[in-house]
Amino acid sequence: MGLRQNLAQFMLLVAVNALVGGTLGQERTVLPLLARQVFHLDLYTSALTYILAFGLAKAGTNYVAGTLSDRYGRKPVLITGWLIALPVPLMLILGPSWGWIVAANVILGISQGLTWSTTVVMKMDLVGPSRRGLAMGLNEAAGYLGVAATALATGYIAANYGLRPGPFLLGGAYIALGLGLSVITVRETRGHAMLEAANHTSAHARAHGELSNREIFTLTSFRDKSLSSVSQAGMVNNLNDGLAWGLFPVLFAAAGLSIEKIGILAAVYPAVWGAGQLVTGALSDKYGRKRLIVGGMLVQAVALGMVAFGTGFGFWLAAAVLLGAGTAMVYPTLLAAIGDVAHPSWRARSVGIYRLWRDGGFAVGALLAGILADAYGIPAAVAVVGLLTALSGIIVAVRMRSTDHKPAI
Fold first, then answer.
1. What is the mean pLDDT of each run of 10 residues along the chain (409 residues)?
2. Other C-beta atoms lying within 10 Å of the C-beta of residue 155
3. Residue 404 in domain
4. Range of the structural domain that residue 326 is part of
5. Helix crossing, 225-254 with 259-287: angle to 10°?
6. The domain spanning residue 135 has which CATH number?
7. Is residue 202 included in any domain, yes or no?
8. What totals of helices (H) and strands (E) does the chain contain, helices first?
9. Which distant-in-sequence residues (6+ apart) come within 8 Å of 94 by Cβ?
10. Please, where are the H alpha helices in 288-312?
11. What is the predicted pLDDT for the residue at 34?
12. Cα separation of 265 and 256, whole Å?
């Protein structure tokens, strides 16, 4: 157990998660424009149904993924996730109605729930307790750099060759490559978690080593102050990400920005988010999780305020950088905090429950942003979500215990 001892397999999983992120990135620039320009959806609530569908599907699958990976192993769940994704690019290319796009996102959400959740758990298995923040930083950096690079590439493809089919052919290539790598080269890691569990001697481990699924859900969601604080922060983080995904391209297009510039803005936010996690995950190992989570939520709130009240490509570019930086402070740190508290024997299930709440934020964000944007306009919707993000950071500051890790093996 350890990063150095498992470096080759760890870096392979980093590459696989970059492909998982790229599969999601094929939509970030193109789908909001497709809703308006091809399917002529005028209401924001209607246009954001694909994010609602994606969020609900992914959130539910995250929960199932943890249980399945504990029962059947990590690798079969990962491969299943890739197989489920196979029809998505064709549905996005050929879909004759918006219902097809929504259905494709249900399938994509299920696939992402299985693949991304499993790569998270597998990296936790491999590295053990002492480098968990670094591992999560590398995992999430790879995924969101994949999102960013693909958002930029699909913006270029769409500007030069149209909204369909070009951007989604890239997603199809990612799925084929990810499936091949997962089948041929990825190895099972559940044995590493069993080894860690056998040597886990902390008091928290003794108290909670054997829990039912219901008890783990209650502990992660409500009872444990650290786990529940992390869960609500993850949900609000993805609430504002769902807003950025669905409404930012529409806001920028309404301001007269070209598709190329919209693609740049859609890419910069996850690019800074992704690259920043190469640093923030390791920083959370050294300086603790709580201060990075609180600071990151507040930085995101400031960035959303800049989007709501500012105008122009340059100002929005600065806001996108700031939003990415705040998210980078939060994202791997939340996962590492779950790993600190949860016992290895039920860690995969606790991660799944956290990701259930976190990715449920996509659905909440799509509904809330759509309703507010239809009633008051996009800037008002962004401002409200910014306030909610600041409130979430305050809740973490007040309620979360320090989870600074002391190795228990």
1. 82 94 87 84 77 88 85 92 96 92 94 91 80 80 88 87 90 95 91 69 48 86 91 94 86 89 86 87 86 96 95 94 95 87 82 88 86 92 96 94 50
2. 26
3. no
4. 7-193+211-399
5. 160
6. 1.20.1250.20
7. no
8. 18, 0
9. 100
10. 290-309
11. 86
12. 13
